[in-house]
Amino acid sequence: MILDKEMELAAAQSLAATANSQNVLYLGPNSWAGNSVGTDNIKLLFTVAEAAGGSGTVTFELRSSANADRSGAVVHEKSSAIPASKLKPGMPVPYHPSIPYDADRYVGVRIVSAGVYGGKINIHGVASRQTNR
């Protein structure tokens, strides 16, 4: 699988604190997703860069906004609470969103952390996900 730096939302971003992803995907002034005539959505791939600790959970929210600073962001999809013990390098993250057709110009992920220490995540936009291990 080829990972494009321009499609990178997070690179070894900490899971220990609630925060927006380090980067956003800019879909353009006409919002690619809403004006696409194709059926292939951009998928998001979450990979664990460093194991998380603690007895808490992490939740991921797929958001979009008309503004680069992400003000007024709309939550399109939210993962269930994922236990820190499930976030190990080499293991799949049990959350597989695609950017919806009604996403606005700037797409990002909000990481909501509760009782987690350590741990780092990578998030990329991809054409398809590798399904074997």
Helices and strands in order, then pairings?
Blueprint lengths: L7 E7 L4 E2 L4 E2 L5 H4 L7 E11 L3 E9 L8 E5 L3 E2 L22 E9 L2 E10 L7
Antiparallel strand pairs: 1-9, 2-8, 3-8, 4-9, 5-6, 5-7, 5-8
Descriptive report:
The protein is mainly beta. Helix content is 3%, strand content 43%. The longest helix has 4 residues. The model has no long low-confidence stretch (mean pLDDT 87).
Structural class: mainly beta
**Cα-atom Rg, whole angstroms?**
14 Å
In CATH, the topology is named Jelly Rolls
Order of helices and strands: EEEHEEEEEE
The coarse overall form would be globular
- Residue stretches low in confidence (pLDDT < 50, at least 5 long) are none
- In whole angstroms, the N-to-C terminal distance is 12 Å
Number of strands: 9
What is the number of domains?
Answer: 1
State the major sheet: 6 strands, antiparallel
Helix percentage: under 10%
- The CATH architecture comes to Sandwich
Mean pLDDT: 87
Q: Tell me the strand percentage band.
A: 35-45%
How many separate helices?
Answer: 1
CATH hierarchy class name: Mainly Beta
Annotation keywords:
6-stranded antiparallel β-sheet; 9 strands; Jelly Rolls; 43% strand; globular; 1 helix; mainly beta; 133 residues; 3% helix
Summarize the structure.
By secondary structure, the chain is mainly beta. The protein is 3% helix and 43% strand.
